[in-house]
Amino acid sequence: MDKEIVIFSRERAEEIVNKLRFRYEQNTVIAVVQDIDTKDVLMVGHMNREALIKTLTTGYLHLWSISRNKIWLKGETSGNYQIVVDIKVDCDKDAIVVLVRSLGPICHTGNRTCFYRNIADVVAEPS
Questions:
Q1: What is the CATH number of the domain that holds 86?
Q2: To the nearest whole percent, how much of the chain has pLDDT over 70?
Q3: Which of 6, 20, 26, 107 has the highest CB neighbour count under 10 A?
Q4: Does residue 79 belong to any structural domain of this protein?
Q5: What are the tens digits of pLDDT across the range 6-48?
Q6: 23 within domain boundaries
């Protein structure tokens, strides 16, 4: 697999997707998004079959929005696209790690990662 960008044909992407277990909310797998260079966890999201196929065929991170019930291209609004370099599958085939080259902050708050707080910081935040 090319370490610069992951792109498969639609047929191959469907073959891969058919091996996974979409058993979470709204028939999704858990997608942990990780920076390819720093290995920092950038975010955790969900992917349904079509979001994963779009990711595999375009090389750009697509996710399934549980709240909006639709696929979204990460960075579509902000321009902070996530280029997929590799994907790892867990032993149960129901969760994946998507290794990306980030073109900007991934978090909607503007932070580079969604995991920018320590647990003690959450207690200190206003409700």
A1: 3.10.20.810
A2: 98
A3: 6
A4: yes
A5: 899 999 999 999 999 999 999 999 999 999 999 999 999 999 9
A6: yes
Q: Is 92 assigned to a binding site?
A: yes
pLDDT of residue 77 exceeding 70: yes
114 labeled binding residue: yes
Residue 94 assigned ligand-binding role: yes
Query: Any known ligand binding at 35?
Result: no
Say if residue 2 carries a ligand binding annotation: no
Question: Residue 32 to residues 3, 12, 28, 94, 96: CA-CA distances in angstroms?
Answer: 18, 22, 13, 11, 6
Q: For tokens 């280029």, name the residue.
A: 83
Domain, as residue range, for 88: 10-124
Cα 1 from Cα 107, distance rounded (Å): 28
Residue 57 within a domain = yes
